[in-house]
Each structure stands twice: as C-alpha cells, then as structure tokens.
Amino acid sequence: MSSTIFEPGLNHFLVVSALLFSLGIMAVLSKRNVIMVLMGVELILNSANINLIAFSRFTELSLDGQMIGLFVIIIAAAEAAVALAIVLNVYNRFKTINLDEINLLKG
Amino acid sequence: MFTNLPIIILLLPLLAFILMIFIGNKLPRKGDWLATGMMALTLVLSVVLLITKVGSHSADVFTSSLDWVVIGSKTIGVGIMIDNLAAIMLVVVTLVSTLVHLFSIGYMEGDIRYSRYYAYLGLFSFSMLGIVLTNNILLMYVFWELVGISSYLLIGHWYEKKSASNAANKAFIVNRVGDFGMFIGIMILFISFSSFTFEAIFDSISAGKLPFGSEGWLTAAGVLIFSGAIGKSAQFPLHVWLPDAMEGPTPVSALIHAATMVAAGVYLVARVFPMLTADALMVIAYIGAITALIAATIAITQFDIKKVLAYSTISQLGYMIMALGVGAYTAGFMHLVTHAAFKAGLFLGAGSVIYAMHAALHKLHDHDTDAQNIRNMGGLKAKMPVTYWTFLIFTLAISGIPLTSGFLSKDEILAGTLAFSTINGHWLLPLIGFTVAGLTAFYMFRLFILTFHGKTANEKILGGVIESPKVMTIPLMVLAALSLFFFYSFNPFGASSGWFYSAVVRPVSIVPELLQPAAYPVFYEAVSSVHTIAMVLSIIIAVAGVFLAFLVYEKKKISAEKLAQHAGFLYKGATNKWYFDEIYNRVFVNGSHVIMKALRWFDETIIDGIVNGAATVTQLFASISGWIDTNIVDGLVNGTASTANRAGRLLSYIQTGKVQTYLLFVLFSLLVLFILFL
C-alpha cells in the first residue's frame, strides 16, 4: 500500500493533542471529584506524549521523543500512586474528596 | 633691731589670739593671764623700740620688705616701716591695749565668753599694730579691714542683745562706706605709680609725676584716702556708728574708741600727709571742725555716761583731724597720743563706775535701773576715791586745763588753727576750735559733777557702791599719771620744747609747689606769733566752761532745764543727735528699700518672665514636636502597617483555598503571557 487517500501529517497529531490537552484542562478545572481531576491530569500528560512522539516522527529527532514519552508514562504512574495515597489521606482527614469543600487555606 | 623687733611686736598679739581662740578655755583662769602677759611683753618691746628709735635723735626711717606678689612688671610687697611716728604709735596702742587687758580681768569677770573676749582683743591689737607698722598702703588697707572686723566682733561681744548686734553691724557697714572711698584712692595711686609703698608713691610725686597727669586727681586721691579716715575716725558724716558702738563692753570702748581704731584714721592722714594738696587739707580741716562742733553740742545733752564720752571722742577726733588739716601736724598727732591716754582713762573710769553701779543694783535685785545713766548716779566721790581722783585728772586733761597733757596738745592745735586763719583768713576754724574747747570743758565737768558730786538720786544704790578691785584701779592710776604734762614736755605751757616736738616733725610737702599748703617755716612763725594769745584764750575759755558747769550743776545757780528751754530748737536738735540717724534711715535705709523693691519687681517680672517665657516656649516646641511624633512619625509607621494590612486583606479575597481556582489563575496568566509574547 504505497499510497493512501488519507496521509496524516504533523498538524493532525498536534490538533488531536491540543484537543486532548483542552479536555484534560477542562477536567482538572471543572471536576469536583479529586479522582476526576487526577484523570484530567492523565489526559494532559498523554496529550504531551502525543506531541512528543509526533515531533519525533516528523522531524530528525529519531527516538528522543519516544524516550521522553516513556519517562512521562513512568512519572504518570508514580504520580498516580502518590496522588491516590494523598487522596486517601485527604479522605481520612476531611471525609470527602470534593475539592470545593477542602478550603482550609482560604484567606 | 628695727627689722626683727617690730615683727615680734606685730606677731605676739596674733599668737595670743591663736592660743586664746583654740585653747583659751582649757587654760587655768581661762587664759586671761596669758593674753595680758603677752600684751605686756609687747608693750615692753614697744617701749624698748621707742626709746632706741627716739633716743637716737634721728629722723631716719627704717624699712624692710620682701616681695609678696609679682604681677607682670608690678610687685606688691609686704614690709614694715619704723619712723618716730610709728614708734610712738606702737607704744600708745600696746600701752592702752595692755591696760585694757588688765582692766578687763576685773570688768569682764564671769563673762560667758571670757576667753573669746581676750582672743578678740588680741586680734584687734594685732590688726592695729599692722596698720601702724606697715610700709605699704595696700597692706595697711588689709589691716584696716581687719580692725573693722575685729571691732565688729568686740562691739557685738554680747550679741544676744539685739542692740549690740545691730551696733556691731552699723559700725561695720558705716566703716565700709569710708573704706570704699579709701580703696578707690589707693587704686588711683597704684594705677598712676605702679606701687603701693609709701616710699615709692612719695618718690613719684616729688619727682613731679601726677596721677593721670592732673593736679585734680592728686587732690581727689588725697580726699578719697581721707574718706577711709572719715569712716574709722568717726568723722562727719560717718560719725553715727561710734555712739552706737558703746553697746560693746566698756573696756572695748576704751580700746577701740580712745587709742586704737579711731586713732587709725588720724594716723592714716599723718602717714599720707606729704602727698595731700592744700585743697585736700582744706577739706580735711573743715570736716574735722564740723565734726568737733556737732559732736560737742550733742555731748552736752546726753545722760548716758558712755554716750557723753562717745561724743566727746568724736569731738576730740575732729580736733585732731582739723589740726592735721590746718598743718599743725605735730599738735594733731600729739593730741592723738595724749587723748589716747586720758580718753582710755575716762572710758575705764566710766567702766569702773558702771561696774560698781551694776554690783550695787545687783545686790538690790534691781534690774530696771540703768547703770549707765548719770541721773541715777551722783555722790560717788566718797565711795570710789581712786576712780574719783583719776577721773578728775582725765576730765581736767580733756578740758585743757594747764599742767595736764591735754592742755599741751589742745593749746597747740588752737594756736595752729589761729595761725592758719592769719595766713589764709579762714577764721571759722579757730572760732569753732575755741567754741568746742569751751563746750568740752562744760560737758565734761557736767558729766563729772553729775556722776561724783552732789546728792545721789537713790541712797539705796549708793549704799551698795564700793570701789572697784585693784586690777581695775591700777590701769586708771597709770593712765592718770600719763595724763600729766611732764611725760610730753618739761615746760607745762609749751609743748614745742619737749621731746615730742623734736621727734615728730611735720614732713615736707611733696606736691607741686602751687598746690602746697603754707610752708612749715611760715606756719611755724605764725604759730609763734599767736601762741601766747591762743594759750591765754584757751585757758580762759576752758576755765569759763568749767566754771559754768559748776554754776549749773554744782551750785545750781542756773537751772539746766531753763537753759535748755532758752536754747529751744538747738537743745532739741542736740538731744536728738541732730537727727543724723533719722536722716540716714530715711535716705539710705528707706532708699535702699525702694531700690530693693524696684529690683525685686525687676526680678519677678523681667527675669522671672524671661525664665518662664523660655519654659513656655520650650513647652510649645515640645508639644509641637510631640504632635509631629505621634501623628507624622508614628503615622508613617502605623500607616505602613495598616496599608500592608489592608493590602493583605484585599488580596486575601483571591486566596480561596481551592486548588482549582489557583490553577485557573495560572492558566489565565499563562494565556496572558502567551498573548503578550507570542
């Protein structure tokens, strides 16, 4: 299959990544549940991964992008582990995981 | 001989003073023998000095001095000067002082401050000898003031009595007035001649130098120095202190008012005599004459035995001053010497009478009768023979009856005034001189008769009177002997042939020729030509005075009261001492009160106003600065704090505590940055 009708270029990937990033931000900013926020964060990280890999594919960076992508995945896993531990502690302390109810630092 | 001896003579009384003031009370008999003995030793040494000095028949002047203070090119020395004048004066002072010491053993017996009294007598004698011996007018001024302070201490001996302490104050303050003038006079001389010694001053003047180059200043200096004598010798118008000073113990009166302190003024005039101009001498002569007349008139009307003697002292001092003023230098100084003997005798005699009266009154437990008032006396002749006879000799001497010493000197003074008037026509001076001679004879015999003759006012008092002890009568006898003529001249009718006249010669005037008084030869010739007239006149007048006194008080042929009535305002004025005290009170005391009030007003309104004003201004500044501090400085500090506070409060609104809000801010900020930079 030497030629196809649709040949995705760099911009397509970037658009997808941007959409994904925006969705992540939306989740982080608007969700009350901490778990949902964390999931938003995952989306943001993954949008970054798409970006990294896309740039790696369409430029002369060879496998650098993939390398960084791997790091990101690992960090995301670590982050999820730590964050969920924090969430558990927050729940123990406040008996809720709704972010708008946790406002002890209000000035 | 003439260096060490005078110093020993000078310092012995000082040593006596020091011993008496510190250990006097611990000595047996409270040390009166010590003070008297030392004074007697001083007397012996003085007599030795006098005999050597006068016996050598030389007019030499011995001086020795050493530098005391050196200021730049000017040197102030301390030194002694022995001439015949000083040698005679030494004996007079020490003699009277010794006899007063002796007399006081009886008179002051049992006094509360017995040894202190002797100490002050020593201090007084020391100061007086200092005046006599010094060769230096500044040092003389120092001793002059020492005499002032020691007389203050002696007059105020019984200071518990208000009148005594007032009299002491009065004597001191009135003397200060005269001393002030004297000091100015000394300063005029010092500024012009750069020296205080008599020798240097006289040398400069005889070399033709005048103070500030003017004859007027020389006259002024003479008169100003004489004003010191006006104070000390109780001359008009500063004579008011002497009668009041009778508040002191009577022997003190004898010492101060007969031989020493008041004689210091006469001695001073004699010392500076060569530099006095004819004008200055004229002032001196008239001051003396006025004093003699005023005091004699007052003495007639007094009833206090000591007051009569006080005024007679002033009067006789006026005589001496007048004699010096007219140029009868030797006569004036001789009167000082003879007067010292008989007036000391009169005072001590009065002391003896007062002592006896006191004892008599004490026996009767009568503490109201005045022991000094001659109206309470009378008829004391039989009870007190020694006092009576010696007092008679003194009275004869002061009245100028022949064969007494007083006659010799007074006669020469009267001849001098008469000669003076023949030379320059000042007839007022001999007129006053002879009038006062008559008055003196009258009031002295009035005193004598009222005290010793006639009937006593109170038999009970007279019954208790006994003769004073030996220690008091011996000094009287010594002085009585010294009041006879042969001590001074073997010719009872003329002193000029005696040793005194050859020893004390009038010094030659050194002032420029135009200002000189009549030269001595001219004066001497005039005296010789009028001497017989003067002598006859003075005898007649003295005898007339005595006779009148006998008529009025002994025989009562003339009523004293009627005489007083006839005299009218004259009598009234004299009884009231010519209102000097009242006038001085009005003018000077009230005057100083007025000045005081004005100064007080000035102090309270202006000075206090300035001080309070300064305080008010400070307060105003302080409140302004305080306001600035609390409102502006503190305001800045607080303002900073409250601004920070308010800002914090404002900013705390955006710190919601919600993570998502912060994230939103971050995002927003990032967007803004993107828009700005991309």
Describe the structure concisely for a colleague.
With 107 residues, chain A is mostly helical.
What are the key terms here?
heterodimer, A: 107 residues, mainly alpha, Helix Hairpins, 3 helices, 72% helix, 0% strand, B: 678 residues, 2 strands, 73% helix, 3% strand
Gross morphology of chain A is elongated
Q: What's the main sheet of chain A like?
A: none
What proportion of the residues of chain A form beta strands (DSSP E)? under 5%
Uncertain residue ranges of chain A: none
Overall outline of chain B: elongated
User: Helix amount of chain A, in percent?
Assistant: over 70%
CATH fold descriptor of chain A: Helix Hairpins
**Total count of helical runs of at least 4 residues of chain A:** 3
**Helix/sheet category of chain B:** mainly alpha
SSE sequence of chain B, one letter per element: HHEEHHHHHHHHHHHHHHHHHHHHHHH
Which structural class should the secondary elements of chain A be placed in? mainly alpha
Question: What proportion strand of chain B?
Answer: under 5%
Radius of gyration of chain B: 37 Å
Number of helices of chain B: 25
Q: Largest sheet of chain B, if any?
A: 2 strands, antiparallel
What is the multimeric organization of the chains shown?
heterodimer
Radius of gyration of chain A: 18 Å
Distance between the termini of chain B: 129 Å
